[in-house]
Structure formats: C-alpha cells, structure tokens
Amino acid sequence: MSGKGKRYDDKFKEQMAKIYNQGNHTYRSLSEEYGVSTAALRSWVTRYNNSKSFKIDDNRTEEEKELIRLQKENQQLKMENDILYPEGHTKQAALLLGKK
Fold it and tell me: How confident is the model over 15-24, as pLDDT tens digits?
C-alpha cells in the first residue's frame, strides 16, 4: 500500500466546501455522511474560501513562495560550489580561478 489516502476531484472538494459554507453542517457531520476526514474537509474549505483553488501553490503566502524560491536558489548554489570546489581540492580550484 502506498500510504496515501483517497483522491478526490476538485468538483467534489468544491461541492463539500459549498455545503459547509451554507452553515447547515459541521465538519464532523460532513465527515460522517461522505466518509471524508474532518482535516481534509477543513483544508478544502479554507483553500476554497481563500482562493477558489485546491492547488497548494495557489494557496501559499508571498512569504512562503519567496522561502521556497530562496531554498531552491541555495540548493543550486551549493551544487555549483561543490562542482567548482570539490572536497580537498579547494586550493587548486581557487588557484585555477585566480582566487586566494
């Protein structure tokens, strides 16, 4: 088993969010009626109410997006640094590049 739960399409998630937003149901009642975890329902409703999208990228804050961008940039720079300055060869690489 893959360890992942059921997959629901966006139409179903939207329908659940709209039903919840009508105010007649709790997360628990919807969970029991439709067999979906309360945590999943809460996440869907929050995402739908924030951006009308269930894609994680559409629901990230600007700070989260910037952090991810910086982490990717940092990883790229580390890889480039490892290529230019392999372990034990820092002095030779520095000499070749004219650095001290």
Answer: 999 999 999 9
Question: Angle 18-22-25 (CA atoms, 0-180°, nearest 5)?
Answer: 95
Which of 77-84's residues contact partners 24+ apart within 8 Å by CB, and which partners? none
By the 10 Å C-beta count (0-12 exposed, 13-18 middle, 19+ buried), 17 is classed as buried
pTM greater than 0.90: no
Gyration radius from the chain CA atoms: 24
Rounded to whole angstroms, how far apart are CA atoms 45 and 53? 10
Q: What are the structural domain ranges in the chain?
A: 7-59, 61-100
Enumerate residues 6+ apart whose C-beta is below 8 A from 6.
Answer: 36
